Amino acid sequence: MSTLGSHSLAAFDPGRVRAITLDLDDTLWPIWPTIARAEEVLQGWLGEHAPATAALATDRSTLRAVREQVGRERADLAHDLSALRRESIRVLLQRAGDDPALAEPAFEAFFAERQRVELFEDALPALERLSARYPVVAVSNGNADVHRVGIGGHFRAAISAREFGVGKPDTRIFLAAADAAGVGPGQVLHIGDDAHLDGVGALRAGMQLAWVNRSDHLWEHEPLQPHLTINDLRDLCRALSI
To answer: SS in 3 state form for 45-102?
Structure first.
């Protein structure tokens, strides 16, 4: 049994690892500061091009409420956060009496800023070490683009829920990631922060799991257990001896 950070009951076998699958948001960078900055850019864009909508969206909770409403009404967009965000902007424009065709350029202003992430201090050094030894495949329910973020060179492939059609924790997206890495799921170590989306999904797909637990959360998915529970990606590199 191998443990780092918190206790883990599953036995970690680094000798089985032939490839890495890797979550992005809140694993390599904090997502909510990124989203907050992108929403500020969106608000500024609306203020210039759709002032009535900007006035309606001054209270950030309004845009979030619209997104929740669209999410309830458009279950077909659940796996596509870009489409969900774009449709939410369109609905808000319509409510304010502005041109709903402005949703596309408004979204592009948001999306460009969404790619300007601030990596955790441990993220890039670990990514460099991991990609030097293993094929690394990004698996994300979000809409970050590893190439626009500037780290695409470290990935053999990137699979998003938007492009694949289903998101984590559906085992199919994990199996597709293993296939993109050129190995079976039993030879993959998945790394991610979300105990349900990353953890349960990867474990049910037959992968080993390194749960990135930066904030001392409790694991609440027994009898499933992570193979490693790590405080940051430096712990992971030590566990893999890289």
So the answer is: HHHHHCHHHHHHCCCHHHHHHHHHHHHHHCHHHCCCHHHHHHHHHHHHHHHHCCCHHH
The whole-model pTM stands at 0.90
The tokens describing 234, both together, are: 């430096």
Q: Is 2 domain-assigned?
A: no
Domain of 66: which CATH number?
A: 1.20.120.1600
Look at residues 17, 140, 125 and name the one whose alpha carbon lies nearest to residue 79: 140
Cα separation, 5 vs 16, whole angstroms: 21
Cα distances from 236 to residues 93, 104, 135, 149, 192, in angstroms, run 45, 40, 16, 22, 11
C-alpha triplet 211, 22, 146: angle, nearest 5°: 140
| DSSP H or E segment with residue 6 | none
In a domain, 3, yes or no: no
Per the structure, the count of domains in the chain is 2
Contact 21, 188 (CB under 8 A): yes
Residue 19 tokens, joined: 């490839």
Encode pLDDT of 79-137 as tens digits: 899 999 999 999 999 999 999 999 999 999 999 999 999 999 999 999 999 999 999 99
